[in-house]
Structure formats: C-alpha cells, structure tokens
C-alpha cells in the first residue's frame, strides 16, 4: 500500500473535552505519523471555504457555526493507506452509528459535534492539506 497524507481536524467539541492527546495516541498507535500540526480558531470565512462542497446542504450554517465555536487542532497524518486508515479510526459520521472503539464512538456526542474531520479521498486530501499548510511546514519523516 502506498504512503499517503491526509488532513485531520480535532473539532471544537473534542478540544474542549481535553482529548487531543488521546486522539493523537490513536493515530500514533495505528501507524500514522503527525507530520504537521497547528492549533487555530477558524474564522467564518476559513470554515466556509473549507466546507464549500457542503454549501448547499441544510446543515451548512450549523456546521460552520460549530467549527468556529472554539479552537481546533489541525494536523497532517502520514502513513500507509493513511486516508482510509484515518477514516476507519474516526468511525461513522453519526457517532450513534460509529463502531465501538472508534474516535467518534468514544468522544463524540452527535452528528454535528462529532469530534474529528478526515479527508475522504486522495484528491480532497491534497486540497485540504494545501488549504492549511504550506509544503515547507510539512515535516515528512
Ligand atoms: N454534518 C451534519 N449533519 C449531517 C451531515 C453532516 O452536521 O446531517 C456535519 C458533520 O459534522 C460532518 C460534516 O458535516 O462531519 C461533513 O459531512 P460528511 O458527510 O463529509 O461527513 P464526514 O466525512 O465528516 O464523516
């Protein structure tokens, strides 16, 4: 399997719960390396741009409001099959449907406050990584 990079965001609910370290250790224990990371409080413009693909969806405004409700932790994960591996570790979008032991099953409350974001395909991973990190701030190891 190829080494990939994927974009991960620990959302405001999980940052507020003080579980950044617990989520990072799941990445590390499953062969994903953190090769870039940054804590930030997104502006409305940044959050709307990031989720532009969802702008016609009924939940768009609530999603943006939630993503700017507190600081987030944004990271690039690198490893074999990183995109699918991170999605597996995250679990289903709705934590009630997420498999036991996944990040969303363990740390998320609801479909809108669902703890983490992860890129869903190589094309979106490339766009999302470039949205937050210039290439020179990614420290491939
Ligand atoms: N979302 C929501 N309500 C929905 C569907 C999605 O609030 O009915 C939010 C949720 O936070 C989700 C994000 O929109 O994580 C992006 O949706 P997507 O379908 O891409 O889910 P993901 O890839 O995050 O599992």
From TrEMBL:
Main location: cytoplasm
Keyword terms of this UniProt record: ATP-binding, Cytoplasm, Endonuclease, Hydrolase, Kinase, Magnesium, Metal-binding, Nuclease, Nucleotide metabolism, Nucleotide-binding, Phosphoprotein, Transferase
Subcellular location: Cytoplasm
Pfam families referenced in this protein's UniProt entry, alphabetically: NDK
UniProt KW Cytoplasm keyword: yes
EC numbers for this chain: 2.7.4.6
Manganese among keywords: no
GO biological process, one term: CTP biosynthetic process
Binding residues annotated for ATP, in chain numbering: 11, 59, 87, 93, 104, 114
Domain of life of the organism encoding this protein: Bacteria
Cofactor: Mg(2+)
Catalytic function, reaction form: a 2'-deoxyribonucleoside 5'-diphosphate + ATP = a 2'-deoxyribonucleoside 5'-triphosphate + ADP; a ribonucleoside 5'-diphosphate + ATP = a ribonucleoside 5'-triphosphate + ADP
Top EC category: transferase
Gene Ontology CC terms, in alphabetical order: cytoplasm
Molecular function GO labels: ATP binding; endonuclease activity; metal ion binding; nucleoside diphosphate kinase activity
Subunit structure: Homotetramer.
Protein name: Nucleoside diphosphate kinase
Organism: Georgfuchsia toluolica
Gene name tied to this protein: ndk
């Amino acid at each position: 399997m190829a080494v990939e990079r994927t974009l991960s965001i620990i959302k405001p609910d999980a940052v507020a719960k003080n579980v950044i370290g617990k989520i990072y250790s799941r990445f590390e224990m499953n062969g994903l390396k953190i090769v870039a990371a940054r804590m930030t409080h997104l502006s409305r413009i940044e959050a709307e741009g990031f989720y532009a693909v969802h702008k016609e969806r009924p939940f768009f405004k609530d999603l943006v409001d939630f993503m700017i409700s507190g600081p987030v932790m944004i990271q690039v994960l690198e490893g074999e099959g990183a995109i699918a591996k991170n999605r597996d570790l995250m679990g289903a979008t709705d934590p009630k449907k997420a498999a036991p032991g996944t990040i969303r099953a363990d740390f998320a409350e609801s479909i809108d406050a669902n703890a983490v974001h992860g890129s869903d395909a190589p094309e979106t991973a490339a766009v999302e990584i470039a949205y937050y990190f210039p290439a020179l701030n990614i420290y491939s190891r």
